[in-house]
Design brief:
This protein is mostly helical. Helix content is 84%, strand content 0%.
Length: 408
C-alpha cells in the first residue's frame, strides 16, 4: 500500500509535472524506449523468475543456487538481445529516443539481475522489497522534479530511469549477500543451469506473450506517432489509476472463493465480485466524466487535452481488465493452467494483428479501441469455452436478483 500511495503521489504531483514540461511527443519517446526494453527483459529472464520463486518457496538454499546458476545465462541472453535492439534503434529513431533507449537498457540490466526481490518475497521478507522500492521511487521522483523545475535538457531524464532500478538492486544485493549461503560446488551450478534452460524454454514464450500483450499498443503507436503515444500513455495511466483498489478487492475475495466447496455459492461469489469491480470502475468513469477535463488541464496542461477524448475508453479497458482478472483467477481454482496458456497465446496473436491494423488506419483511436476489444474478448468469448460455459454462467448471474439475496 505504501508503494501504491507513493506511486499515486508521483503520478499526481511529479510525473504529470514532468510530462507537462517535456510535452506529449517527448513523453511518448520516453514510453516507447521503456516499452521495448521491458520485452527484452522478459526474453533475457527466460522464465527464471517463475522458477526462482517456486524453488525458493520450497527450499531457501535451492533458490539461492538457482539465482547464482542463472546469472550467467541472463547476462549472455541480455547482451545478445540488447545489442540487436540498440543497433536497430540507432539507425531508426531520433537522438533523444536513442538516449532514452540506452538509459532503459542500463536500467533493465539492473532490473534483470534484481531477482533478489523474488527471493525476499518467496522467503516472506517482502518488507525488505517495500523499503528498497519506496527509497528508489522517492529518489527518482525528486530527481525528476528537479530536472523539470530547473528546466534542464530533456535528456537528463535518463538519470531517474536508471536510478529507479539501480537503487533497489544495490540495496537488495547487499542484504542478500549477508543473508544467503553461497553455493560451494560447481557441479550443482551446472545442474541448475541445465534445469533452468530445460524449464525456462517452456515458460519464456508464455511470459513473453504477456509482455507483448501489455505493450502492443505502445510499440505500434511509438512507431507511428510518438505524440499520440504520449497522449495514450497519460490516458491509460489516469484510466487505470484506481486499479490497485480492484486488485486489493479481488485478492481479498478470491481466498474465500477458493475455499468455497459449494459450486452454487462459488458461482454467486464470482458474480458478486465481478459486479463490485464493474461498479467501482463505473463510478471512476463517472468521476472522470465530470472532472476529467479539469484534472488533465491542471496536471498536464492544454497540450494534453486530447486525452479527454479517450479517457473514458481507458476506464472501460480497466473495467474489463479487472473483470477478466476475476475470471482467470477463478479458472485457476479448477487447475485451468493449460487452458489459460492456450488462451493467452491466441489472444496475443489476435491483439497484435488487430492493433497493427487499427493503429495503421486510426492511429491513437485505433490503439485504444484495439486494447478495449481485446479485453472484452478476453473476458467473454475466450473464457466461455472452459468447462461448458462456467464463466458465462457466472456472468449471467450478475444480472439475477437472486444472486444478491441472503440465504437463510
Amino acid at each position: 500500500m505504501s508503494e501504491k500511495l507513493l506511486s499515486i503521489f508521483g503520478l499526481i504531483f511529479v510525473t504529470s509535472f514532468v510530462a507537462r514540461y517535456i510535452g506529449p511527443e517527448n513523453f511518448g519517446k520516453l514510453t516507447f524506449a521503456t516499452s521495448i526494453f521491458a520485452i527484452v527483459q522478459t526474453l533475457a529472464m527466460f522464465g527464471s523468475d517463475n522458477i526462482i520463486f517456486q524453488k525458493t518457496s520450497k527450499n531457501k538454499k535451492t533458490g539461492e543456487r538457482i539465482i547464482h546458476a542463472t546469472q550467467q545465462i541472463r547476462n549472455v541472453l541480455y547482451a545478445i538481445f540488447a545489442t540487436v535492439v540498440l543497433a536497430y534503434l540507432y539507425y531508426s529513431v531520433d537522438q533523444l529516443t536513442f538516449i532514452f533507449s540506452v538509459a532503459s537498457c542500463i536500467a533493465v540490466y539492473f532490473a534483470l539481475h534484481d531477482v533478489y526481490n523474488i527471493y525476499f518475497n518467496a522467503t516472506l521478507q517482502s518488507y525488505i522489497n517495500t523499503i528498497c522500492n519506496v527509497t528508489a521511487i522517492l529518489v527518482s521522483l525528486v530527481v525528476r522534479y528537479c530536472i523539470a523545475k530547473l528546466q534542464l535538457p530533456v535528456a537528463y531524464l535518463s538519470l531517474p530511469i536508471v536510478l529507479i532500478t539501480l537503487i533497489p538492486f544495490v540495496m537488495r544485493w547487499f542484504l542478500f549477500k549477508h543473508k544467503a549461503i553461497t553455493p560451494k560446488t560447481s557441479h550443482k551450478i551446472q545442474y541448475y543451469r541445465r534445469y533452468m534452460l530445460a524449464v525456462g524454454k517452456k515458460l519464456v514464450l508464455y511470459s513473453l506473450s504477456i509482455a507483448i500483450f501489455t505493450k502492443t499498443s505502445q510499440l505500434f503507436l511509438g512507431l507511428s506517432s510518438q505524440h499520440d503515444l504520449g497522449i495514450y500513455t497519460v490516458a491509460m495511466t489516469l484510466g487505470s489509476s484506481f486499479y490497485f483498489v480492484l486488485n486489493a478487492l479481488i485478492s481479498s475475495f478470491l481466498t474465500q472463493i477458493y475455499a468455497q466447496k459449494d459450486m452454487e455459492q462459488s458461482q454467486n461469489m464470482v458474480a458478486k465480485l465481478s459486479a463490485l469491480v464493474a461498479s467501482i470502475a463505473l463510478m471512476a468513469g463517472g468521476f472522470f466524466l465530470i472532472f476529467g477535463h479539469y484534472i488533465i488541464d491542471w496536471l498536464y496542461g492544454s497540450a494534453y487535452q486530447q486525452v479527454n477524448q479517450i479517457l473514458l475508453l481507458a476506464v472501460m479497458v480497466t473495467l474489463f481488465s479487472g473483470m477478466s482478472t476475476v475470471a482467470e483467477k477463478y479458472l485457476i481454482k479448477f487447475n485451468a493452467y493449460d487452458y489459460l496458456h492456450k488462451k493467452t497465446m491466441v489472444l496475443v496473436l489476435f491483439n497484435v494483428i488487430l492493433t497493427y491494423v487499427a493503429v495503421h488506419f486510426y492511429s491513437l483511436y485505433g490503439a485504444i479501441f484495439a486494447i478495449l476489444a481485446t479485453e472484452i474478448l478476453s473476458l467473454t468469448v475466450f473464457n466461455y469455452f472452459f468447462k461448458n460455459g462456467l464463466i458465462l454462467n457466472a456472468h449471467l448471474r450478475i444480472f439475477k436478483p437472486s444472486t444478491y439475496r441472503r440465504k437463510p
